[in-house]
Fold:
Amino acid sequence: MKTNICINEKYSGLSDFIRALPQNFDHTGELIYSGRNEVRKVEINGKLLVIKYFKRMTVANRFIYAAFRKTKAQRAFEYADWLLKQGITTPENIAYVDCYMYGLLCKSYLITEFTDYQPVKELFNLPISDSEEGLKAFARFTFQLHQKGIFHHDYSVSNVLFSENNSQYDFSLIDNNRMKISEYSLRKGIKTLKRLAIPVECIGIVAAEYSRVSGINDVEMLNAMVLIRLFHQLKDTIKHWLKAPTIILRGRF
Structure:
């Protein structure tokens, strides 16, 4: 098995642990998420780390990542470094590990620092009276990203984290492998909001504040946010409907 490892030089002391990760991952630390990917939290030398294992890949993607494209782990690692240089908060990278066998990517891991920031969905779940300033801060952060040409294409309430101290909000991006860096346009910015599953009453506050700082019409912004979300939900419903016959057939045979 061929292994490609990149380690942040600040964490060179963890190289033995990182090199052994493909063999030890299943028994390392505490499992904190299991789904399309697996995420584990582990303490090493008094430092809390998070390890993400990108486990679900089609055979086609295993070949593409081995032959043509950077892996998700490598892209997330490189984009996080770029975000920090732009003054955008994101957990500091420690390393990524990509393993190849028979010309295919077989395992891929990203190791970052642990962060105690909370998912922004917790902010959206609060009563408006307690969350309004936070929602406005989130809108300003979103515009700041777009203005810098940062378009996060998995911009969801789970992939944006936040911290609040004396009514001062800081936001952090995670799962950065699906990012694009390009010139600002409102259309590109709106498209990144399609995965934001937020309550209707919050959309108005976010749209109004984004409009204020960007100088666009607030009604147009509100309509765009609502329509892009509805269109995304419709696409998801159609995809689920198309998959349903396959699922039924698998259950019968």
